[in-house]
Amino acid sequence: MTENYEHYITRNIRAFYRRRLFSPLVYLTILLLLWFLFPLGNILFPVTITQNASFRSVYQSNQRYAKAAFTDLTFTGYTSKKYNNTDGYFYYGIWNEECVIVLLSPETCEEGLPTIDNITIHGKIVKSNDTYKALLSKLSSALDWTESGIINQMPAYYFSEPDYNTFTTILLFIVYFGTMLYALICLFIYMLYIHVPHLAPACQNLVVFGHPKQMLEEAEEELATLPQLATEDMFITEHYFIMTSPYGNAIVPIQEILWIYKYSTLHKFLWYHFSISYTMHITAKKHLYIHCPKNIKSDIDGIMDYLAEANHDILVGFSEENRLKVEKVLGKPFHIEKLIALMHRKI
After folding, report:
1. How many Å apart are CA 99 and CA 296, to the nearest integer?
2. How are beta strands 229-230 and 234-236 bridged, if at all?
3. Contacts with 115 (C-beta within 8 Å, 6 or more apart), sequence order
4. pTM value?
5. Where are the beta strands (DSSP E) in 96-201?
6. What are the tens digits of pLDDT across the range 2-19?
7. Mean pLDDT, the chain, as a whole number?
8. Count of alpha carbons within 13 Å of 249, Cβ hemisphere only?
């Protein structure tokens, strides 16, 4: 028994956070794959193109989001609509010795200026689509050309400013880098808890009762030498209640416990009831709350009986009377208690 429970709490804290490393690592891998599978880098850092490069060559190089300077653009008289709203105005001009189409946002062209001398914009090079074909068809009628003739004269690509949606782009990267930062922070914190277990919440919650590292060492020593009661993932030593389950870890000084009770949960699928599990709730002084989920009734009953015997001041069972008694004992919110304890330690 001594060998089995040597540093048992520390080992379980480390195992718990090793399992939690999986989610941020998978998420960061997905973000990395998205960066290479989709042109996210090109959206964030659009290339600057000059008139020496055709729209076709830039598109085929997968640098479809670009910054370009245009001169002498003329309004075609046609617009692009999206959801019954005008989202762009079609202009034509010369690029790389070709007559090209440029779709400008309403704000950029002031909703259809006849001509624009100079303009530098961010946009996306778009391959011929139904909107572009419809525009060329209308232009061929206006110019008294055949549709096939204008299609042969115009490149199969155009430059679209509305397709480089600034708001959507900003929102995309806020979500992308925001969630990436969150995953990296989680990864760092979990690795910190693995290497320094006494910094984990299960131990730091003890700051309101004393020094977390010292209390962890004391609980480890008591568990390794002579546990008073042991179930699959709950233990009682001379001074501590200890939980080491797949759902979390906890250490609570028995003399600080105010109230314990259990409730049952019926697990079912559709109309079939297949199991009942029990959760034990522990309320300790300084607003420390512990939940021990998915246990069997006999284990929880044994733990509750032993705790009640070890500390006769513990209230057992859920009732309104017990709730009011505990509410009267508890004072300031837990985060205030914890802040005061930390300040006293530093002083």
Report:
1. 78
2. antiparallel
3. 72, 73, 74, 75
4. 0.77
5. 98-104, 115-127, 157-160
6. 457 899 999 999 999 999
7. 88
8. 23
Contact 220, 232 (CB under 8 A): no
Cβ count near 289 (within 10 Å): 13
pLDDT in tens, 188-231: 999 999 999 999 999 999 998 999 999 999 999 999 998 899 99
Average pLDDT of the residues in 245-271: 88
Structure tokens given for 71: 């001169």
CB under 8 Å, gap of 24 or more: what pairs does 31-40 form? 31/176, 31/179, 31/180, 31/183, 34/176, 39/63, 39/64, 39/65, 40/176
> Can you tell me the distance from the alpha carbon of 192 to that of 8, in angstroms, rounded to the nearest whole number?
18
Strands 157-160 and 229-230: unpaired
Tokens read off for 236: 């009682």
- Number of C-beta neighbours around residue 65 at 10 A: 22
Give me 167's structure tokens.
């708001």
